[in-house]
Amino acid sequence: MRPLRLLSGLVVLVFAGTALAGLPTLTHEGREYVELSRVADVLKTRLEATAQSTHAQLRPAGHVVTVTRNWSRILVDGVPVVLDAPARVRRGVWLVPETFLARVQPRVQPVMAVQPVAAGAPATTAPTVKAEAAPVALEELRFRSYPAFTRLVLETSGPLTARVEASGGKEARIRLFGLTADARTEEIGDGFIEEARLERAGADAILKIVFEGSAGEVKTSALADPPRLVLDFLRPPETVPSHERRDAVTPLRLIVLDAGHGGHDPGAVGPAGLQEKDLVLDVTRRVARLVEDRLSVKALLSRDGDHFVPLRDRTSFANKERADLFVSIHANAHRATASTGVETYFLSS
Questions:
Q1: Single pTM value for the model
Q2: Contact at 8 Å (CB) between 98 and 104?
Q3: What is the domain partition of the chain in residue ranges?
């Protein structure tokens, strides 16, 4: 595969209405952008960047927001947040997607609740103002069983704080602070965990794990991009079949292949007009045929046509299909045509 080369040329920016907080938007590469300096004004701070900078920073009310040129991942107080398009610098002006303010503002400017003044109180009494953290919504609850443990993942709209309140007997209870989610029951039945129940507890939620036998040790961890709470329930040694302890590696049954970009997002563009979205879709279809013919492994595609699929939907598709492997295929670009090679990124366990 020949490497792509970046095209240089005229960039046309078209004004197209207004975004959040009345900010004017600009259409670029089929997406709506706003000027980062105008966002800084809304957040009552200033933009720390030049046209030549690799990074730009905003410092609203003691927070630090770091934006990287041509990256869709930003940092808010060191926590990764992924935008739906990369930041750009055009004609010396820093641009961010129009959804930038909606993603960042709740993290740096908490919702303010005003306590009303009681009837009969003196007119000079000022109302009490207190900060309330933005609610965290449950986006998806999923699980997967392994020979030595069962993993539950709660994907949420923001970082979530949890505390294991009890674990023993045939039950474990985990308090999820400030999580807004309806009560529900997830049947697991993997020989270790019978079910997971999500219950309301005032402003919080309680995740109750019901074991089929003895309870196992609980390990919690948090991931970002998107925010996830990962709960690993370790099987007691006597419940792990001996043959599974000897060989915990299971054969691949299902692979989801993800062709990058698509639709209004062309990806990189070659000197003759070849678009990355078309190239990787062709490669992905070929790989799917090879996987099924030569490996006897079922292959599913996150997209099988020229349409755009959001990042969250791509990974959600793989998780819902219970894929053993998710492979995203891209074709990176470089101005030097002699550049060759393969980049491989993987998520470690």
A1: 0.43
A2: no
A3: 14-108, 136-239, 254-329
CA–CA gap between residue 307 and residue 300 (Å, rounded)? 16
Instruction: Determine the residue type at 204.
Output: D
The phi-psi region of residue 75 (left if phi > 0; otherwise alpha if psi is between -120 and 50; otherwise beta) is: beta
Instruction: Give me 16's structure tokens.
Output: 């197209």
The residue type found at 202 is: G
- Which tens digits make up the pLDDT trace of 240-273? 555 554 445 568 899 999 999 999 999 988 888 8
Count of all residues that appear for the chain in the document: 349
User: Using an 8 Å Cβ cutoff, are 167 and 191 in contact?
Assistant: no
Q: CATH classification of 14-108 is 3.30.160.20, yes or no?
A: no
Domain 254-329 architecture: 3-Layer(aba) Sandwich (3.40)
What is the pLDDT, as a whole number, of residue 297? 93
Decide which of 1.10.10.10, 2.60.40.420, 2.102.10.10, 2.60.40.3500 is the CATH code for 136-239.
2.60.40.3500
